[in-house]
């Protein structure tokens, strides 16, 4: 039997949101289709830890980097650097695959110096740069340019993100590879769970989103659209799943908006993050993404897999999946698109099996080629 390819996934946090689900989807596919060819491990910060639970179910070894966190901290980041270095040194991996900018900056150079055959970085959108302006934005671009020197492949999620990499001058064109996100195929869920929990009658239409409550996801835009639609139609309610993860200070902005628009209190429901969110989404009549920046959010694919039409801001790779005609830039445009989707009552089709297998095979080919063991 030929030697297995050792792969280490690194990500900053160990919670169970988009990036972590992408890593899991890759590992799950390799584990199921090519189990005898790969040995997979994963490393992340200790906060939350839900991701670790999922990987352990597959029998995949996890490494907890207790100093690793999202917020900058000189002392903790220095400790995290040495922890990452120790994991890579002991593991002698063929492929080290970074999935957030912070771990790549901390560990990319180390991975190359410790002779990983290939270092890969998947860019899950450019929000970590686009959220800033002026010198701070330029500083993070410089960091990314520096880190790209110690990376063999930069995986972008779509053509739009590849063009941004060129604009920012991050990495060379020969480093850029496009692999579209996909999720593990699931059967369509039965409807009714969300309606039952919220005590919503069947004659009410539901517009929903699944996301954190923070500036990037822009829940205030969601509320503004809710206000516009509620003034026109009285049989529509709005559900935001993810209110348990709130950016500091953002909850006050939401409460202030409700106080100024008290009529929305009976129309809008905020519920905590749920592991069964894809099942709850089966009750959505429209999925409404209101983010300011994204890569390719898995919740969009989860909604499509449930047959739910998606309306979104024109961010990241979303338009390449749902079509430019289903995206808008203003509250007025998005309101019109949601109303059109509600009136058409059309389900959508998404080729989950085909897209997922293509996704797994793309990473399979990249790892085999990268490790020179293919």
The CATH homologous superfamily of the largest domain is called: Glycogen Phosphorylase B
Distance between the termini: 13 Å
> Which secondary-structure class do the elements indicate?
alpha/beta
At CATH level 3, the topology of the largest domain is: Rossmann fold
Give unreliable regions as ranges.
Answer: none
Helix content class:
40-55%
Q: Helix count?
A: 15
CATH level 1 name of the largest domain:
Alpha Beta
Average per-residue pLDDT, rounded, comes to 93
Instruction: Sketch the major β-sheet.
Output: 7 strands, parallel
> Any idea how many domains?
2
Radius of gyration: 21 Å
Q: What portion of the residues fall into strands of 2 or more residues?
A: 15-25%
Question: How many individual β-strands?
Answer: 13
Shape: globular
The CATH architecture category of the largest domain equals 3-Layer(aba) Sandwich
Strand order of the largest sheet: 3-2-1-4-5-6-7
SSE string, helix = H, strand = E?
Answer: EHEHEHEHEHHEHEHEHEHEHEHEHEHH
Question: What this model shows, in words?
Answer:
- There is one protein chain.
- The longest helix is centred in the C-terminal third of the chain and has 20 residues, at 352-371.
- The strands form 2 sheets. The protein has a 7-stranded parallel sheet, with helices on both faces. Strands 10-9-8-11-12-13 form a 6-stranded parallel sheet, with helices on both faces.
- It is of the alpha/beta class and 374 residues long.
- The protein has 2 domains: 5-183 and 354-371, Glycogen Phosphorylase B (Rossmann fold); 193-344, Glycogen Phosphorylase B (Rossmann fold, 3-Layer(aba) Sandwich).
- The mean pLDDT is 93.
- The protein has 15 helices and 13 strands.
- Helix 9 (219-230) packs across helix 14 (331-344).
- Strand 2 (38-45), helix 2 (50-57) and strand 3 (61-65) form a beta-alpha-beta unit.
- Helix content is 44%, strand content 16%.
- The two termini are 13 Å apart.
């Amino acid at each position: 039997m030929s030697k297995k390819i050792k792969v280490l996934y690194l990500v900053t946090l160990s919670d169970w949101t988009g990036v972590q689900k992408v890593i899991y989807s890759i590992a799950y596919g390799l584990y199921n289709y090519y189990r005898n060819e790969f040995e997979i491990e994963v490393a992340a910060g200790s906060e939350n830890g839900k991701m670790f639970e999922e990987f352990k179910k597959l029998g995949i070894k996890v490494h907890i980097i207790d100093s690793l966190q999202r917020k900058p901290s000189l002392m903790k980041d220095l400790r995290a650097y040495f922890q990452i270095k120790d994991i890579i040194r002991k593991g002698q991996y063929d492929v080290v695959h970074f999935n957030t900018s912070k771990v790549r900056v901390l560990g990319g150079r180390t991975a190359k110096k410790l002779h990983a055959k290939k270092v890969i970085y998947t860019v899950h959108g450019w929000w970590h740069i686009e959220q800033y302006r002026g010198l701070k934005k330029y500083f993070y671009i410089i960091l990314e340019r520096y880190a790209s020197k110690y990376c063999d492949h930069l995986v972008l999620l779509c053509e739009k993100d590849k063009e941004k990499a060129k604009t920012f001058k991050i990495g060379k064109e020969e480093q850029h590879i496009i692999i579209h996100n996909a999720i593990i195929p699931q059967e369509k869920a039965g409807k009714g769970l969300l309606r039952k929990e919220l005590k919503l009658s069947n004659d009410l239409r539901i517009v929903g989103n699944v996301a954190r409550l923070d500036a990037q996801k822009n829940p205030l835009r969601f509320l503004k659209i809710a206000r516009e639609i509620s003034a026109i139609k009285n049989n529509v309610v709005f559900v935001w799943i993810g209110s348990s993860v709130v950016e500091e200070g953002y909850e006050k902005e939401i409460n202030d908006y409700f106080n100024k628009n008290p009529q929305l209190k009976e129309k809008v429901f905020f519920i905590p993050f749920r592991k069964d969110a894809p099942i709850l989404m089966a009750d959505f009549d429209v999925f409404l993404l209101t983010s300011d920046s994204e890569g390719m959010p898995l919740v969009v694919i989860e909604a499509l897999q449930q047959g739910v039409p998606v309306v979104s801001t024109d961010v990241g790779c979303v338009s390449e999946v749902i079509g430019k005609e289903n995206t808008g830039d203003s509250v007025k445009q998005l309101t019109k698109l949601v109303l059109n989707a509600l009136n058409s009552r059309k389900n959508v089709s998404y080729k989950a099996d085909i897209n997922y297998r293509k996704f797994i095979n793309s990473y399979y080919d990249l790892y085999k080629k990268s490790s020179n063991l293919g």
